[in-house]
Structure formats: C-alpha cells, structure tokens
C-alpha cells in the first residue's frame, strides 16, 4: 500500500434537491454521462435520480478507487452502495503533474476549484483518463444487482454535486488527495501560493472548444419587452458639473435604450444569423439617428454642428432616417451614376409603371428622376427601390417610404401631400 491509499474524505448527506440539476460544471456532467451511457437499464438510472433528489443518499465516503454510501429505498430499506474507479499509477501521476505545470493557468485553475478542459484532454491523449469513460464506473451494491441499480446510480448523482464543488474529489478517486497533488506541484517549484492566485476572467477559447462535447447548450435568447427601458431620472437637487447638460444626457440615454431594443429585436428575428453584420455608423449617420429621436433645439443644434450640417439639413436627414435608416439616408445625401444592368432595369420599370398617356415626363440625373414642371422626384437606391422626394424651399426632402414600383412611390407622395402632379 502506498502512502496515498489510506486517504479518505467523508461528505455529509445532502438535503433533497428538488427542481435543480445535479451537475453544473462540464466535468460534473461528464461524470454523469459516464453513468448514463454505461447503465444497461435506463429505468435504474431514473430510479437513482429520483432517490438522489429525495435525499435518500447518506454520507458519502470518497477514497482512492472507491466511493461509498448507504442509500435508502422508498420503503426505508437501507443498502450499502459502492462504485469503483481505477486508480492511476505513480508514473501516470508524475506525468499528470508535468502537464499541469506546462500550461500557464492550469495550477491556478485547480486551486480555484476549476478543472481546465485542455488539461483533461492532454492527459487523455497521454493515456491518463481523469474522467470516467464508458464502463469505468464499476457498481457494487448489497441489493445484489450485477449492473448499476438505483442505489449506485443515486450515489453517482450525489457525487456529481460534490465534483461540481471540488474537482479534487475526482483526483482523490483516481488515487491522490489534494495535499498530495499540491505537494507534488510545489516540489517542482511551479505552483503559486493559493492566496496569490490571479486568473483572467472567462474561459480560454481553446479549452472551451476542447470541452464542447460536454458543455451545455447555450441559454435561450432573452425575451423582448414591449419597448425600450426607461433610463433613470436625472432630476436631482445637485447642480450639474460645468459643461454638462442634463437634458442632453437624458436624451442620449433614452436613445441608447431605444437602439438597444431595436438591435435585440433584429437579433431575435428569424434568419438574423444569415444577415451581414453592419459596420459602425459614421458620425454623420449617428447624428441623423439621434436627431430622428426628436431632441430639443439645443441638442439638435449641437448634433448639426458636430456632424457638419445646418439645422435644416439635419432635420431632413432625421426624416430620412425615420423612413429607412442608413439606406434612406444614403439616398438623401449621396448621388451615384446608374449604369449597365441597373440602368436597364430602372428604365424598364419606369416604362411599364404607367400607361403611355399617363407617364410623367422625367429628367434623369444619376440615380434621380425629376418630374418635369413639378416639384417631385424619384430616387433609386442600390437595392432597386424607389423613394419619393419633394422640393421644399429649394431643398429636396424625403416624402415617403420606398416602393419597388416607381408609380406606387410617386402616388404615395401625392396622396400624402394632397397635391396633383
């Protein structure tokens, strides 16, 4: 007998665990998967799960190669249940310690009661199986079952919770207690002091990928509320710092909430994962978005100045943004030549949109077709949609949303303004 084989830890019986899972960590779930995959009778696994939930598993003894507990049936009959797990050899433990100290963060993770997936994967590649595989959990029970029974299954479910709290329980089952493992690490001069451990937030991507087969599915997407949240009130008795306009801050906060709600709505829409990712908005685009929220005159002036526009130009940009976001803003502010197939499609659409005696006379310039003798205009966007425009005080301003048919776009503007062409 080596000096490690007489090590034993005993864990008090846990209360009933209704309504929660037995394992939250990836290694706890891997332990349960070894049980569920190996059991010949799935009904016995379900019985064990029910017994464990009911608190029928007594104190659990963990020692190298064996876990033991007394499990009570529903009628109160008690059975001693054991589950055996092969211990690692001294040579395997030496190799495991070497691998643990090779990669930065592994020792710190163990001290933080975490089991790095990459460490487990590297160990398995080297023939050192820390987590049990198919058939590795050998059941022994006083009830006489030759395979996993409800009692040994209940014991395994209870141990999954212990593994969640402390992966050193698994190392003890494989043959080494916590102090023996830490002594080996410190002897080689690489183990940091437990009080000085500093770990980065999150999980290394390589380690997360290595454990992908045992990680849980991602959580369900969040629900979408009826509208954006309301930012906290800035109406306090404290005077604002110099240069800070509380009304402007409140406006920006409300628009940020509205934009977050819009982005979430888009993310939850079916097919969103197949859409291209939008680029970051330019300063001019963001000013138009904010102006579309209806700020006060002071904020509107600041947005106009910051984006290099007059107030009138920003007002038109805000209207375009409300009608169609970036696409509508581009139609308002950019002019480009329509050539090749795009020009042929545009001409065909204009020709078929009206009967010969109803077609307005249009003068083309770039992507803009102006009605001769009337303050009306059609603009073509890069997606082949037509936008109605009207002249107002010498400036062309958007007069409605887009349409695939130019006649429909022009008619919608006429109906909206109440004018005839």
Topology (SSEs and partners):
Blueprint: E1 9-11, H1 26-38, H2 42-53, E2 60-63, E3 66-72, E4 78-84, H3 90-102, H4 106-111, H5 117-125, E5 138-141, H6 150-165, H7 168-173, H8 178-187, H9 205-210, H10 246-268, H11 283-291, H12 297-306, H13 311-333, H14 340-353, E6 362-365, E7 368-371, E8 376-380, E9 386-392, E10 395-398, H15 406-417
Antiparallel strand pairs: 1-2, 2-3, 3-4, 4-5, 6-7, 7-8, 8-9, 9-10
Helix pairs in contact: 1-6, 2-6, 11-12, 11-13
Overall body shape: elongated
The helix tally amounts to: 15
Strand content: 5-15%
Question: How many β-strands, per DSSP?
Answer: 10
End-to-end separation in angstroms reads 102 Å
Share of residues in helices:
40-55%
Low-pLDDT stretches: 190-197, 417-421
**What radius of gyration results from the CA coordinates?**
35 Å
Features:
421 residues; alpha+beta; five-stranded antiparallel beta sheet; 15 helices; disordered C terminus
Short description:
By secondary structure, the protein is α+β, with helices and mostly antiparallel strands. The chain is built from 15 helices and 10 strands.
Description of the molecule:
The protein is α+β, with helices and mostly antiparallel strands and 421 residues long. The protein has 15 helices and ten strands. The chain has helices at 26-38, 42-53, 90-102, 106-111, 117-125, 150-165, 168-173, 178-187, 205-210, 246-268, 283-291, 297-306, 311-333, 340-353, 406-417, and strands at 9-11, 60-63, 66-72, 78-84, 138-141, 362-365, 368-371, 376-380, 386-392, 395-398. It has a five-stranded antiparallel beta sheet with strand order 1-2-3-4-5. Strands 6-7-8-9-10 form a five-stranded antiparallel beta sheet. A hairpin with a 5-residue loop joins strand 8 and strand 9 (386-392). Helix 11 packs antiparallel against helix 12 (297-306) and helix 11 crosses helix 13 (311-333). The radius of gyration is 35 Å and the shape is elongated. The model is unreliable at 190-197 and 417-421 (pLDDT under 50).
